[in-house]
């Protein structure tokens, strides 16, 4: 095992090394080498075993999650993308632009009466009708009645940082919790009405050079782009827009005059609203 500066800090068994990587506490640095993450102190090297006190930060690991079988309309996949640091990372993309619920779940065995932090990032996950849903749940010993729910859509639960990333927002969350008397903990994400990527992220300080961008600021800019009418051109390029919204737009336009509706790259979906 090595630290972030490639200094050897101990040895461990292959099974333990695999477990550390799976839980997001280490990463592979070679065929027989792992690099530990989030170390609180460097231990004395032991030739046979390791005894390392690590911070109780659990980083999101897509490999720990799977589709929740209790949800019958899951949409999405696990896949690899390249992050803003040029690193290939595994993410979980969930949800679609329609009314299908998607749920993913991870079951973990943790220590009782212990403070933890679950860290993850969210990209995309916004639509132009502001009715998307994204929820994060922490459930102890399968107790759904006393689970903790974090309402993430539209930044309703404030992230620790929110940054501009291309044409979207990177929101990083660090959810603090205590296990109390429970050892079996479930993490769940539910999404609907927007494609959302859940990704592993670094410490917040690593994103200092990115421009701050809150959801409210992003939405104001996006709304101005959607509603901008100039030269008889209505710009809905690359928008996610329902037939319901298009019908409302048509009703709102002046009865006279010619208009060009720019729908290049737009995703138009049927909201099945019989009243419109």
In whole angstroms, how far apart are the ends? Answer: 62 Å
CATH topology of the largest domain: Jelly Rolls
Number of strands: 19
Count of domains: 3
CATH architectural category of the largest domain:
Sandwich
Percent helix, as a range, is 10-25%
Silhouette = globular
Q: Note the total helix count.
A: 3
The low-pLDDT segments are 39-54
Based on secondary structure, the structural category is: mainly beta
| Computed Rg | 22 Å
What portion of the residues fall into strands of 2 or more residues? 35-45%
- Average pLDDT reading: 84
Given this structure, which CATH class of the largest domain is correct?
A: Mainly Beta
- The run of helices and strands is HEEEEEEEEEEEEEEHEEEHEE
Largest sheet, strands/sense/barrel = 7 strands, mixed
Describe the structure.
This protein has 276 residues and is mainly beta. It has three domains: 14-54, no CATH class; 59-213, Jelly Rolls, CATH 2.60.120; 228-269, no CATH class. The protein has helices at 14-22, 215-227, 243-252, and strands at 26-30, 33-36, 57-59, 66-67, 76-82, 88-94, 102-109, 115-124, 133-140, 148-151, 161-165, 168-178, 184-192, 196-199, 229-230, 233-235, 240-242, 260-262, 267-269. The strands form five sheets. Strands 3, 5, 6, 8, 11, 12 and 14 form a seven-stranded mixed beta sheet that branches. Strand 15 and strand 16 form a beta hairpin. The longest helix is centred in the C-terminal third of the chain and has 13 residues, at 215-227. The radius of gyration is 22 Å and the shape is globular.
């Amino acid at each position: 095992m090595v630290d972030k500066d490639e200094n050897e800090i101990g040895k461990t068994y292959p099974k333990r090394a695999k477990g550390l990587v799976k839980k997001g506490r280490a990463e592979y640095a070679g065929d027989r080498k792992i690099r530990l993450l989030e170390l609180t102190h460097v231990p004395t090297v032991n030739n046979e075993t390791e005894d390392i006190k690590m911070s109780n930060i659990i980083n999101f690991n897509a490999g720990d999650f799977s589709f929740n079988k209790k949800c019958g309309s899951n949409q999405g996949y696990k896949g690899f993308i390249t992050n803003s640091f040029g690193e290939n990372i595994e993410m979980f993309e969930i949800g679609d632009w329609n009314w299908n619920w998607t749920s993913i779940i991870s079951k973990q065995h943790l220590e009782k009466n212990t403070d933890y932090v679950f860290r993850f990032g969210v990209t995309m996950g916004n639509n132009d009708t502001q009715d998307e849903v994204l929820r994060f749940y922490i459930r102890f010993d399968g107790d759904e009645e006393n689970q903790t729910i974090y309402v993430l859509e539209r930044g309703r639960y404030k992230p620790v940082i929110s940054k501009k990333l291309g044409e979207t927002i990177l929101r990083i969350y660090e959810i603090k919790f205590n296990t109390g008397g429970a050892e079996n903990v479930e993490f769940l994400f539910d999404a609907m009405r927007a494609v959302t990527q859940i990704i592993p992220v670094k410490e917040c300080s690593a994103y200092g050079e990115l421009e701050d961008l809150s959801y409210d600021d992003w939405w104001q800019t996006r709304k101005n782009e959607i509603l901008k009418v100039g030269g008889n051109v209505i710009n809905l390029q690359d928008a996610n827009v329902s037939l319901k919204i298009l019908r409302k737009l048509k009703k709102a336009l002046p009865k006279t005059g010619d208009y060009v509706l720019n729908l290049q790259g737009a995703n138009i979906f049927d909201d099945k609203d019989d009243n419109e």
